[in-house]
Amino acid sequence: MVSCLDEKDDSPLFEAKPAGRERSCRRLAIGSTILGILLILVYRWTHIPTGGKLERFVWIGMFISEIWFGFYYVLTQACCWNPLYYSTFKDRLSHRFEKELPAIDIFVCTADSIMEPPILVVNTILSAMAMDYPQQKLAIFLSDDGASKLMFYGLLEAIEFSKQWIPFCKEFSIQQRSPSAYFSTISVENAGLMDTNNDEITAIRKMYKEMEERIQNAENKNNTHPNHLLSLLQRKGFVDWKFVSSNPNDHRTVLQILNDGRELEQVDDQGSSLPTVVYLAREKSPNHFHNFKAGALNALIRVSSGITNAPIILTLDCDMTVNNSEIAREALCILMDKTGDDVGYVQFPQNFRNTTKNNIYGDFIDISSKFDLQGMNALGGPLYIGTGCFFRRCSIIGKKYVGDSSDLLQWRKEGGIVNTDERISMLEQKSRVYASCTYEQNTLWGKEMGVKYGVIVEDALTGLSIQCNGWKSVWLSPERKGLMGIAPITLTQILVQRKRWSEGWFQIFLSRYNPFLYGNGKIGILLQMAYSSYYLWAPFSVVFLFYVLLSSFALLKGVAAFPQYLVDTIWLCDELGLLDSFDGAIVTGETLIGYWNIQRGWIIMRVVSFLFGFIDTILIKLGITNSAFVVTVKTTDEYVLERYEKEVMDFSPSPPMLNILGIFVTIELFCFIGVIVKMMMMRCTTIILERLFLQFVMNGMMIAVNLPIYNALFFRRDGGSISFSVTLNSLIFAMFSCLLVMFLQ
Ligand SMILES: O=c1ccn([C@@H]2O[C@H](COP(=O)(O)OP(=O)(O)O[C@H]3O[C@H](CO)[C@@H](O)[C@H](O)[C@H]3O)[C@@H](O)[C@H]2O)c(=O)[nH]1
Ligand SMILES: [Mn+2]
User: Fold this and answer.
1) Distance of CA 347 to the CA centre of its chain
2) For a disulfide at 585, which of 95, 385, 392, 590, Cβ 3.0-4.6 Å?
């Protein structure tokens, strides 16, 4: 390795490597698949049946769906065309810039102290405070849309604990800077460390446990606060809290600078300064619409600009803890390099610390990350995915890109310094207006400035508009995972989350921000395609349902939906996602069962989440409903957790939207049974099988892949199964529609 001192001062801080051989292989695969698709479409076109009406209808229906699938396939492959991998040289960064590293404002959003318990958020905050970075240059801004006193109290506890935690992390070079995550992995990861420093670890662990207990007690009994915090509480006072009723949606702004990193009033055990910590619950009133997380982020952008105004902003969800202590340095290698001047944000992947071995809900996020989002690097860069993203303040505020390379150093001088003349309370006073309900009236906030309003996936829309303002973005995936969050652990949680995503994305597609229109001339066509492949999840569901049901009903009727050629098997499998992402699954280290689960995951998402996302989007367009940001639950009861750990699918609490899944799988089952009965009665197995082979296989596969759903519908009796009313509805509706089809002429 070259020593730092030998480096010339303009040696690059990062490197972007195209994938050589891999790229050729992918292109070959894409090319041949597209060729296959075209051949199939030509075959469909030239072989439209001339006979019965029903035969024609089925054939043309399948044909139209396949045109869509083919089109969609092309969209998705834009990402795979030219993978580009970034790597960084952190030693060069510290050699050259250690003293001038820019200040960073870290935004953590939370919304509900029941669904997102304070101890979880406290861990996120501690992990960010303890990052490997000059602590006096860090500022944590917590936005609490739940306006919870408990959360506020948790934040005070976090500051106290950080005085021991930060020096501890530094002394032992701990990577995992969330205490709870660290203590749960410690025995495995740091066995050696354990031996020699047992005492210190035991002591800090005990301290953490006590804090955890105090926070939990406060939750349970609304307890009084422990002595060592009383003085702090008295001094800071719950001034603002006096005006907060129990209603989190109707209160004035609560803004408190709990620690000012530059004042050195609070230091850690080693005498070093702590990061600045600010609590914000923006003003809420029933007369104003608050734009969910987007509104919270914009309030944070403004409030922080009055306090620290750091040139770099990191956004974190309340469950995203720092897992790689050097992420800030990783990101700055890109943002501070002179060739990175046009990079508006650096996005880290979302990783989860609670995944199970076989990916029980078949979540495809990992595969998306490794392929699609990674693949966007060469096209201009990935979407912003809401968490784990380092922005230049000016890119997110929305100043048009001017290409001035000195920008970052300039801000560094301005940012990160509180005017010492201003007392903290004056500063609070001044900044409070930025978080008021009315501040944004008649401004460009949410439109041209800051995080964009109007859709419930503020992240995707904001990323797109930053791109369209001329910035690039980078997907950075260091070997040691940057951040770790909590993945949904029941089917309902994941269904609700994916419905929100598919709905928000489709809203973007139908809005004036449609990437093909809005991005026209601003971002490349491949990037427009890549983004659209996500934005079209919702309508995909409709075609998917139509295709699968048409083929199954046709099977029941004895009408052929496919020609009798083997080549279609491959095509068919591809479309059903049965071969979908096999290479992806292998590369991301999925087990075979995990791969199988991913196939089910896609089916369930399409049948339920994306379908409801689609319907809701249409209703919103028609002005019939409004969308809401339903927060993903991040707590759990012990039975749910037990099922999750055993990898048993959990359908509780069986929400009404499960009806559609039940009906779908039951129809599939009835069609399959129907055709078998028919074969036995008519003794014409071979004829039926010959003509309808592919449909038969497809139907059979659907049933095989969905076995856990049948189990929950008809056999399971535990708390995680599907409720009886859903089972009943499924049977009735499926029976009714199969009978209807059978008597159709
Ligand atoms: O009115 C709200 C609603 C949500 N949140 C916060 O937003 C974050 C994300 O919410 P979560 O329920 O965890 O949603 P996910 O689906 O897991 O989030 C993904 O998708 C969201 C967009 O739908 C992005 O905002 C997130 O960053 C991204 O991780 C959480 O910290 C919430 O506390 C708010 O601050 N205010
Ligand atoms: Mn989340």
Assistant:
1) 12
2) 590
